[in-house]
Batch of 2 targets.
Target 1
Amino acid sequence: MSDKSKLGSLRSNNLVLQENVSAYLFLLPFLIFFVGFVLYPMFMCLFTSFFDATMGRKDIFIGFQNYKELANDPVFWVALRNTLVIVVVSVPVTCIFSLWVATIISRMPMAATSAFRCIFYLPVVTGSVAVTMVWKWMFNNYYGIFNYLGQNMGLIDKPINWLGNPKYALGCIILILLTTSVGQPIVLYVSALDNVDKSLVEAAEVDGATPMQAFWRVKWPQMMPTTLYILVITTINSFQCFALIQLLTSGGPKNSTMTIMYYIYYNAFKLYRYGYGNAMGVILAIIIAILSAVQFKLGQEK
Amino acid sequence: MNSKKPSIYYFICYILVALLALSFLFPLYWIITGSFKVKADIISKTPVWIPTQWVLDNYQNLLSKRSAPLFQIGSWVGPTIPAAFRWLINTVFMSAVSMLLTCLTASMAGYALAKKRFYGRTILFSLIVAAMALPKQVILIPLLREMSALHLYDHIWATIIPIVGWPFGVFLIKQFAEGIPTEMVEACRIDGASEWRTFTDVMFPMIKPGVGACAIFTFINSWNDYFMQLIMLSSTQNQTISLGIATMQGENSTDFGLIMAGSALASVPIIIVFIVFQKYFTKGITMGAVKG
């Protein structure tokens, strides 16, 4: 090897080192927050799930005891069932509803499209607390508009205590959740419809495809990545549904709106059982990871 | 014949979507009109669609109300000071600081992830994506204990720090920075500019629209980040407007006029921000999804 090329490789090594150092310097401020307050707590969630942990004393190692207790905790199973019901109902409804709305409003003039997009996004911006408060009023037993409208239209005989009745409470929660979760998918679908290759659609129309065929055969496949993304975020969103339950029903009546998210919160803040709550967090994370993986797999196959 | 059918179909759809839009607007209408209604209108069994009288009673009530905090940690009970304005100040401070810190850290990190080749890049990026896929509520207990250990519990910073650590901003700006030609960065380096100069003078101006999207997104999301506020803040003077209203609701659960006044105070400012910056916001949502 000549001296020259040795020098060259030394210099390139030097460059690589320099690139690494500068990259990490740029990353450093973010990494402090990310590692310290996202990754470390994630690790601690897993770690503490093997301990009997509470306030004001040292954690006691108990192995898989928390997980064993979870398996035998009827409230946990109810919470898991309710959580899955919320996800199974709200995810497909959100996706189909927002796709439909997006196809309609994307045909309108620009100004109308953005006005409608804005309106459907409003419940998200309004914030979970304000939204929950107004729905609580609308569902109210005595002066809520739902009982008034229902009675006036002859749908119900007497006022229903919507949120206090185990039969209806979860349905009410899902309805509110739906209004706060379609905003983002609509924005995404409108932009996806905008980005569809117009020449392909025109070619299909020239070949005599009906609008329905043009949509399902040409546009839909091109929007698959968007749909996949929407599926994933809507699933996570539905799992996260917390404020509604905390503010409206606190998991009641008779645990009919108890979800994993709320049960974790309940264990942490009412019972101070940190280890037990963390074990539930781990289970929840595993469920979400599996669901996301399945969704990705399905999306890629198509 | 064939072309007539769809137009009727779409006509019906337009009407349906318009009706749906009205029903999406209704809660907001109900909050705002409700906050100006007299008590009789609010507890009327027949809904009063338009207030018979517009009054400020509810707002006066909200500002003068002395309410004990619903929230207690251990034997700790918060003071009973009325604080709607203090809550607003806290919320603006929290959202603005979260926004500034997130934009700063995310634009630097996003640039590095998009334009630099370094060891551990793939691992770091997969960690970021994995973290984003988890509901952040999963880490609530460890985060709470960590904040207590750092003596940040019941301090507004305890709600800011986790927002800054949340990797969505980095992801967004990385996506945006990848669209900028690498030649720009290289040309700069050949001209002898320092790394920092390359970033501030060349890269930053080009990723500005991305940073704008990140800013508005972070601002609105932290304003409404009720969950983090709920677990981290407890005393009345440290609460945010959402949390304060939620707490007040626990005390006066049937005084809907008062609660609507609080809800209006919590939501109208952020809705105005949203409408003003709507364009950036929409961009942020769609940008984060590209290549998801």
Target 2
Amino acid sequence: MNKILKYSLYDLIRSRWMFFYFGFFLLFTLGLFWLSPDLSKVAISMMNIILILVPLIATMFGLMYFYNSREFTELLLAQPIPRRHIFLGQYLGVAGSLSFSFLLGMGLPFLFHGLFTSAELPLFLTLLVSGVLLSFIFSGISFYIALKNDNRIRGFSLAILVWLMLAVAYDGFFLLLLSYFKDYPLEKPALALSIFNPIDLSRILILLKLDIAALMGFTGAVFKKFMGSQIGMLIAFIALLFWMLLPVLGIRRASSKKDF
Amino acid sequence: MIAIERLHKQFGKNKVLKNLSLSFEQKGTISAILGPNGSGKTTLIKSILGMVLPSQGNIHLFGKNIRGQWQYRDHISYLPQIARFPENLKTAELIAMIKDLRQRPAREEELIRLFDLQAHLQKPLAYLSGGTRQKVNLVLAFMYDNPIYILDEPTAGLDPLAIIRLKELLQEEKQKDKIILLTTHIMSLVDEIADEVVFLLDGHIHFRGSLSDLKSTYSGQAVEQAIANLLRQEQHNRQTSTRLP
């Protein structure tokens, strides 16, 4: 698996999409600093980008990489290595290089703006961790979807649908549910529901760190009320790790049963 | 060395291989697996490599069942039908990668010279033409000394000189007692280098035998003609059987 990972990284780090991705984060973060020197304001703007764009790009890139390397995967499948090593290696390569571009693109401007002397270091680290976790989770989901769907159009549609549901529609659905059942105590069901959305979990993780109640939304407030910031963050983080594991298990299972 | 017993493969409702039993035991033999499009050639090859998982039946290699195994693939060299590689890797890095995976001495330098690839070694694979990529594909397939070679359309996209070199290479490997399976749509190639033909039709073995058997059974001077006669006869049989009440 390490060998596949190594060469996937060689390949991906030189891909121009990774340069674009890195460049985008670099310019965007620099631009935000230029507009406002206040680190915490920049962090909030960055949060919105991380929550929406990182999952979308990880999804698209995972699908593109998987479908583009189909023929090469066949060559690898004929080599004396177990199947799961091939797919896990490729997946880790994609997730790893996305995370690398993200970390570098967002990290460099923060470093230049005196991050280590600032009190916002923990917040910034929370942002970075969320971005990395979301990169892993969504490229994993897209690999799983691509493994299950040979038809590219179907694969892309399904993956976009999943992203749309989790990034956009989930909130609306949530609000609808809350207003419909507003006569009942909803804290616990809401808490349970947010566990099912990695983007929501990341938002909660970051906002608990930011401690801005106005932006927390219902679930964030519930998390804080029931568990306090520390425990709430820990639980959100553990749930995100679980989300990271889920596609990996899916990839293992789907790859062992698939015909190529 | 390769024994296939009652192999069935079904993709959804589509039965591609139907109760296929076949073995390749004779060393130093080039077997051409032929058949019209969709007859199951690639599925058969991929089943031997473990890329397609049989619905029923077993495949034994060197007396061992390959189900769930992967180590056995170290004894097989495979040339995939389509030569597409990671775009940003250089040719030399790709070769290094496969060597890294197999961890055995290889003779890539000799093959790089044979197919005149020296000038392409430091280029990213995305910049190579289709024919050059196929040459790289050939280097990857032939650089190991393995008892079994499985080649899916080896001549695709090659220039005449490279085809001649490939034929020489195949003859050389045959002399070294290898079992070579190949699929192709170029019948003159079969005429020139194959020792026997396995003809698949609708997932069955329709014919298996030497080239001379094929030509005499289906009265053709060349393989191409014999295969055309075989298909004509088959078409005729089908039409008459559907006409019957």
